[in-house]
Amino acid sequence: MPLVFVLFVGALKDGYEDFQRYKQDRNANNCVAKVLRNGELLNILAKDINEGDFIHYEKNEKFVVDSILISSSNEDGGCFVDTAELDGRIGISELSHLHSVEQISTLNGNIQCELPNQSLHSFEGRISLPEDFPLNKNDSNIIPVSMNHLLLRGAVLRNTETAWGLVLYTGSNTKIMKNLKKAAQKTSTLERSLNKFTLCAFILNAALLFSSLILEYFTYSKIKSHYTSEQVATIYDANGETNFNSTLYEWYLGPADQSPPMHILGTFFAYFIVYTYVIPISLFVSIEVTRVCQGLFMYWDNKMKYDRVLPDGTTMVQRMRPNNTNLNEDLGRVEFIFSDKTGTLTQNVMVLAKYFVNGHTFDEMKNKGGFGRSILSKQTDDDKTPLSSATLEYMVLFQRAISLANEVLPAHDANGKVIYEAASPDDAALLEAASQNQFVLVKRSKSELVINTPFYYHDGEDVENSKVSNGNFKAESYEPLAILEFNSDRKRMSTIVRTPSGKIHLYCKGADNVILSRLDNSPNVNLPSLIEEAQDSLKNFSVVGLRTLMVAWRELSEAEYEEWKEEHYNAERSISNREAALAAVAEKIEVNLRFLGCTAIEDKLQDDVPETIDYLLKADIKIWLLTGDKQETAINIGLSSKLLNKQMSVHILKGVSEKEVEKEIKDIQNFMKDNPGAVNALVIGGVALGILFSCSNDMQLMFLSIGRNCRSVICCRVSPLQKALVVKLVKKNVKCITLAIGDGANDVSMIQSANIGVGIMGREGTQAVRASDYAFAEFRFLKRLVTVHGRYSYMRIANIIMYSFYKNITMIMVMWWFGFVSQFSGTLVYEEIFMTAFNTFYTAFPPVVMAIFDYDVNDDYIDKYPQLYKEVKADSYWNFWTVAGWVLTAIWQCTAIFGVVYFVNSEGNISSTGRTTGYWVQTALFGTPVLATVTLKFCLATKSFVWLTAFAAAFSLALNSLTIAFVEYLGPSYSEAGNGALVNTDFTYYLFNPHDADVICEEQKVNAKRFIKHTYSFDELHARKDNI
């Protein structure tokens, strides 16, 4: 019955979750979409949409399938798509003229593309059209399709009235569904300890079982040895019926079993069933219920709620999301935290801070728009320093490069103001600053880029001649020829345009180390002194925590461009390894660049980041910062966030070869040996880290050994793969709880590699949130998640485990002691209802109440004293001696209960009617003290009483009393034995010395087991007793 109840509760929980998924699937499948069928636009259910259908979307409509954007109501055929953030999608330029149902109906051809997969950042495919199909421009009938052309399921059409899509993937084949696969199952360390505890309980179960078997067989053999074979033969008469006058017939146990193997087997199963109660099966359901409730408390915690202001001015409430409550207790024992920087520690709200152009630094934070005013006045806006013609030319080209080298689609708000809703916050910050400096990108299409500026386009003439005398803006039109996209491997992006004068320019921006390696080495093109000065400025920008970019350009000849265009065309239309082919072609054109300048963008720290990190470090949690930023920027962020301080000994690993890295590691080890009291910190670059992971395991362990002795570690210029490798290195070799926190897609591998993954609901999409175990809006909430919810969860789960085993051991050990006075016959010391209801009703609620509501100190004190978290990590709530204490308490209390009840009533209490207590009262006299004892222990173990605590304790005792009263009320009908022989059950009197009803009841059970059917009378009963 208990097992059935546990399985029923588990099935009920799983069934509810399946039903919720069924409702979500039904709602998704029954969404209505407009699909073109047989020349008509029909309303079709999403589940009936097929690959190859043409689907029509309207503004603010959610995409129900993955489709290729064919055309839209916008002039260029592109559209805006709202995913996690607003980003653009580009229509098929060759088909952007198709708008009406009739025009779309004429479209036919074939699509070649990759099989359905979960990649949200890459896609390779192409559309093959008939040679006579009318295209928007004179081009090949084979049209390449990339990720920029896809409308992904779950996204929303924004700022575009209508759009046509060609259905590519449906149902479970869509990319979002492919990404909804459950991550590898994570289990908490306490759960693994529970498995060991359960194994020990099985050993105790086996010890009780075999000791009972041995003692029972000893008693059986002793009785059997008293009789000869002739006496044994008298057990049955000539007709095979039981001979009740046989001297071998025990009046209480029935005929002696003459088959030892069968006797042992029967006794084994009798005790096996009873002793299985040592394992609290209901504990596993109780833990699941507890975890769900703990997850709800996290979600309801207003101290982890964040009100995010959206671009339209509305406020969205973001609550903490517990995606995997199985790890609640592990939050209380975190040893290492691995954190991303941008968007995790910082706000990811970019603001252009400074420019560096041709030896001049312009501070846009102090003097917004000063860069543009300096061009107009031909002198710096702050100190009025005259600017040379060369500098002015650099400045104009620099701002044009900023305005053109991006993939942002400008839009207009209700007042006509240009807004930049970019996928990259860096691009949005650069364009906002450019517009403040009078270079405004107003239009982007497949055929045209338009910049509004008070400067005419010029090709080398004096800038003064390009100035509009009245200061009015004039539109400059550029023809976009190619875009070489940014990715984490390239770390740069380029655009190739044809200028108003017909020349071809390439503008490139990216990481400083990448751009520097692609600059023209000729001193006539790039002055070495200027490059050196630029590097110094970049270092200064990084020191104050600014994100830096370099900007460069070059002019292409027609012949060079045409040759490269042919290679790019072939790479763009390849059906396999397209990204690698495009990257190789881009390498050929992004060379011999001319340096223009640098940008520095500020990304402010989130609220309370320094205080949070300082608290976590005092709680003895080691924090490793894994970032793609350069060393100077990372160190400055470390200082401002209190990850580093001036009292620390900061060691830097920056070797570029295996020997250099090994020497630096050994030097750091020697320093730590010579200065054991020093507080250390470690900074390592991506190159050195790459060398470490390409070396032997010994080198990695040497690095790990110095990292463990450091208060904090900063890894710079790391790739997403290196982030995951660092986490795995610590997790594998230190054998501790690791936590990784990040906000972007490049943090997913790190999040999934750690024991616990935390996602930040930021501006870089939802992949990190989907891959995480817990998610919230800001880094500061990590402190409360770990030190309050984690600490409470660990304490509560540890208590529910130990209490559950304690109460069951207490109950079953009384049964074992009872064997010594019942000849180990397997007779239950408790009434059967009590045995069944003990775990499922009597003691089911107290441990759950304890695990949900109990706490030792208020969360305000935890916030003040980080030492309280260290106690949990030191195994104060779960260790060998604590567990042993609970087990020994159970053994002592069960021994005391049995001893008191037995010795007080061993002679039998005689009632006023002259009758003694017997078996049925025995069940109550043993069961009630056991229940009262474990309930009292629950009250004593509870550290914080709430009204539900008192209710759970009172409910358990009251339910037992009601059960006793109910059974006593049933009286004869409950204790009926044999053929109408009825007895009166008086629970107040009678214990061990049996009266007639006890004998009848026990014989009925024994005979039922031995398949003996007989009806007894009171005279027969007394005759058998008299014979004995």
From TrEMBL:
PROSITE patterns, alphabetically?
ATPASE_E1_E2
Which top-level group of life is the source organism from?
Eukaryota
Q: What is this protein called?
A: Phospholipid-transporting ATPase
Question: What are the residue boundaries of the P-type ATPase C-terminal domain, all occurrences included?
Answer: 769-974
EC numbers for this chain: 7.6.2.1
Q: Which UniProt keywords apply?
A: ATP-binding, Magnesium, Membrane, Metal-binding, Nucleotide-binding, Translocase, Transmembrane, Transmembrane helix
In terms of InterPro entries, this protein maps to: ATPase_P-typ_cyto_dom_N (IPR023299), ATPase_P-typ_P_site (IPR018303), ATPase_P-typ_TM_dom_sf (IPR023298), ATPase_P-typ_transduc_dom_A_sf (IPR008250), HAD-like_sf (IPR036412), HAD_sf (IPR023214), P-type_ATPase_IV (IPR006539), P_typ_ATPase (IPR001757)
Q: How does it sit in the membrane?
A: Multi-pass membrane protein
* Family label: Belongs to the cation transport ATPase (P-type) (TC 3.A.3) family. Type IV subfamily.
Q: Name one GO cellular component term.
A: plasma membrane
Give the species this sequence originates from: Clydaea vesicula
Where do transmembrane segments lie in this chain? 196-218, 268-287, 677-695, 800-821, 833-857, 878-904, 919-938, 945-967
Q: Give the reactions, separated by semicolons, that this protein catalyses.
A: ATP + H2O + phospholipidSide 1 = ADP + phosphate + phospholipidSide 2; a 1,2-diacyl-sn-glycero-3-phosphoethanolamine(out) + ATP + H2O = a 1,2-diacyl-sn-glycero-3-phosphoethanolamine(in) + ADP + phosphate + H(+)
Q: Cross-referenced Pfam families, in alphabetical order? A: Cation_ATPase, PhoLip_ATPase_C
Q: Which cofactor does it need?
A: Mg(2+)
Matching NCBIfam families: ATPase-Plipid, ATPase_P-type
Stored PANTHER family: PHOSPHOLIPID-TRANSPORTING ATPASE (PTHR24092:SF218), PROBABLE PHOSPHOLIPID-TRANSPORTING ATPASE (PTHR24092)
Q: Does the keyword Membrane apply?
A: yes
What are the binding positions for Mg(2+) in this chain?
A: D340, T342, D743, D747
Q: Which GO terms describe its molecular function?
A: ATP binding; ATP hydrolysis activity; ATPase-coupled intramembrane lipid transporter activity; magnesium ion binding
Residues annotated as binding ATP: D340, K341, T342, F486, K509, R547, T627, G628, D629, R717, K723, N746, D747
Q: Where in the cell is it found?
A: Membrane
